[in-house]
Amino acid sequence: MNASEFRKKSNLKWKGLKILSQIELKAFWRNKNILYSQIIQPLMYFLFLVVGIGGTIGVINYNNMMIPYEAYALVGIMGLNMTSQMTQTIYRTTIDKRWGLLPLKFLSGIKPFYYILGMSTFPIIGFVTQSLILYFLSVIFTLNVHILDFFLGVSLGIVSLIFWTSLGVLLTVFINDYQKRDTIIAMSIMPIGFSAPTFYVIDAVPNYINFIASFNPLTYQIMAMRSIIYGQPNLMYIILTIGLTTFTLIICSIVLLKVKLVVNEK
Question: Are 122 and 88 in contact (CB under 8 A)?
């Protein structure tokens, strides 16, 4: 029986997901440096960028609602947090490849689908932690964000995050060179984050920005979360967000079923 056949017949299923999630949870709390950076990042974005711009702009028109700019950009920071969390998945998956844990986990009976979800635990905890910090900031600055709507928005954010973690696993599987992978990440994270409507209002920018944003998955994820958090859920954006995650998760699972289980990190 070859490795691919073995993986197809493996049956750990949710037990494998539970094991991976526990491992990733312990790894998150043990890595204090990453924990501190997760806390500092949203604070820096909000206090020194968003509040500064908000002091100049004041309020904006969002779907015929006048809301403070800080409230609008709050969701944009959540979007940036999602894409930055992809690097944590890449880091954790790289460790698995480098030390032979990736083939060991697969050959132990963990299906690729559950592996991807399990490896999303680390970034999900980070994203939720950052989102809670942003909610507390919204309370301090009296942005009137309803807690239930915010919770629903974060839930959709977790779905969106799995899209980025799936991409992170794919990148790690296909690119074996550390330097090349780091270069791709460095050159893509910032354009993805800032070409989406994180800090700008999509109806008030030049056409070329809208054109670029239309090809950016983060655009639709942010707009879906924003519509939920501010009480005007846009069904089209929500369905598109869930669809993108489902499609990417399936593709990544299929690729992992067929990938060679070898240690070839450079």
Answer: yes
Amino acid found at 168: G
Instruction: Report in angstroms the alpha-carbon separations of 247 from 3, 110, 126.
Output: 24, 20, 24
Any long-range contacts for 137-141 (C-beta under 8 Å, 24+ apart)? 137/42, 137/43, 137/46, 137/47, 137/74, 138/70, 138/71, 138/74, 141/51, 141/68, 141/70
Average pLDDT, the chain: 88
| Rounded Cα distance, 156 and 150, in Å | 10
DSSP letter for 141, please.
T
If you compute the radius of gyration of the chain from its CA atoms, what whole number of angstroms results? Answer: 19
Mean pLDDT of 153-167: 97
End-to-end CA distance of the chain: 29
Least confident range of 8-17, 34-43, 128-137: 8-17
Give the residue carrying structure tokens 């991976």. 20
| Overall pTM > 0.70 | yes
pLDDT band at 207 (very low <50, low <70, confident <90, very high): very high
Beta strands in 35-169 (DSSP E): 59-62, 65-68
Collect contacts of 136-143 with beta carbons under 8 A, ≥24 apart: 137/42, 137/43, 137/46, 137/47, 137/74, 138/70, 138/71, 138/74, 141/51, 141/68, 141/70, 143/67, 143/68, 143/70, 143/71, 143/74
Distances (CA, A) of 236 to 200, 214, 224, 239: 21, 14, 8, 5
Tokens representing residue 10 in the block:
């493996």
Indicate if the pLDDT at residue 194 is higher than 50. Answer: yes
Q: Which residues on neighbouring strands pair with residue 68, listed in sequence order?
A: 59
